[in-house]
Amino acid sequence: MFRSTLDQLTSAAKSSKARQVLEVPVDAVDADPDQPRKTFEDLEDLTASIAAIGIKQPLLVRAHPSDRGRYLLIAGERRLRSARLAGLPSVPCLVETGDAETPGQLVITQLTENLQRKEVPILETAQALARALEATGLSKGDLARALGKKASFVSKHLALLSAEGPAQEALEEGLLLSTETFRLFSGLTIAGQRNLLTQARLNQEPIARGQVERDPKSSDKPEPETPQGSPTKPRAESAAEGSFHLKLDAEQVRAIIRRFGLEAPKELSDLKPTLLELLR
Q1: Residue 238 falls within a domain, yes or no?
Q2: Burial class, 176, CB count within 10 angstroms (exposed 0-12 / middle 13-18 / buried 19+)
Q3: Per-residue pLDDT tens for 23-70?
Q4: Active-site residue list
Q5: 3-state SS string for 168-227
Q6: In angstroms, rounded to a whole number, what is the distance separating the alpha carbons of residues 118 and 150?
Q7: Are residue 24 and residue 144 in the same domain, yes or no?
Q8: Helix, coil or strand: residue 122
Q9: Residue 132 vs residues 74, 107, 114, 217: alpha-carbon distances, Å
Q10: Most buried of the four, 5, 7, 108, 155, by CB within 10 Å?
Q11: How far apart are CA 266 and CA 250, in angstroms?
Q12: Over the stretch 212-243, which tens digit does the pLDDT of each residue have?
């Protein structure tokens, strides 16, 4: 049974069934609420390109099952959003004209489209993989084959769904960009995770693998035993462990304060006290 289901889903993902290319009014295309991708940031460049030269790669849609004249989006939501921002009246669409895809086939198609785009957050990919397993009844290995991936790809992403504490926060905020960085980050102590997460928030930059690897003091590995009779070095105070220093100019501090929803002080002397109060 699994082999038959896998063959159907793989065929759907690589489908060559008849498709029509139509110009569809932009307001007649509805986004799929269950599509794997949930965040759509940094649309400025794409919007500018679409405004200048239009859409070169058509969106993939299917006819709405209950609303004649409307379409449900399968793939291309960034292009659809950018087209609306650019004020385009219509968008080119590849319209599926074959039989309607099952929920399992649809999620496989959407996953295949999204996995070709590296900017999709890894947590969203993990959530989509979990939905695909539920919708299709496939094993992790069979799902990976349907997507053209190794079995470890599915397993590593599903591990993200069990994240807790700072690791979960970092994933939800898009501050961990790969499953390997997540694995290393999860191996740190909670204090080490919290320090790197705070630093990433202040810098407004994702946590890099190199940052995690450069902080061995924050890992959960036991410290080497001191030979008997050798003098031991006193441990640093817990408050100082894993501490770090940042150099921020006035505008960076003001930007951080504004991210908390507050108006940044104009006087330089008021910036530091305001920031410290927010971080307590």
Answers
A1: no
A2: buried
A3: 889 999 988 766 555 566 667 888 888 888 888 778 888 888 777 888
A4: 77
A5: HHHHHCCCECCHHHHHHHHCECHHHHHHHHHHHHHHCCCECHHHHHCCHHHECCCCCCCC
A6: 17
A7: yes
A8: helix
A9: 15, 6, 13, 39
A10: 108
A11: 10
A12: 987 654 444 444 444 555 444 444 444 444 45
CATH number at residue 50: 3.90.1530.10
What distance in Å separates the CA atoms of residue 273 and residue 280, rounded to the nearest whole number?
11
Nearest one of 121, 193, 199 to 160, comparing CA atoms:
121
Query: How many CB atoms neighbour CB 89 within 10 A?
Result: 9
202 assigned to some structural domain: yes
222 contacts 162 by C-beta, under 8 angstroms? no
CB atoms within 10 A of CB 108: 28
Residue appearing with tokens 């921020």: 248
Structure tokens at 187: 């191996």
- Identify the three-state secondary structure at position 233: coil
Assess whether 44 and 95 both reside in one domain: yes
Residue finishing a domain among 103, 137, 156: 156
pTM to 2 decimals?
Answer: 0.49
Which pLDDT score, from 0 to 100, does residue 8 have? 43
Per mean pLDDT, which range of 44-53, 102-111, 122-131, 240-249 is the poorest? 240-249
The runs of H, that is alpha helices, within 44-139 are: 44-53, 77-86, 103-115, 122-136
Phi, psi angle pair for 96, to nearest 5°: -65, 125
Q: Cβ of 22: how many Cβ atoms within 10 Å?
A: 14
64 vs 200 pLDDT, higher one: 200
In the Cβ-directed half-sphere of 251, how many Cα atoms lie within 13 Å? 0
How many angstroms separate the CA atoms of 198 and 182, rounded?
Answer: 16
Phi and psi torsions of 187, nearest 5°:
-80, -5
Residues facing 29 on adjacent strands: 71
Indicate the residue type of 170: A
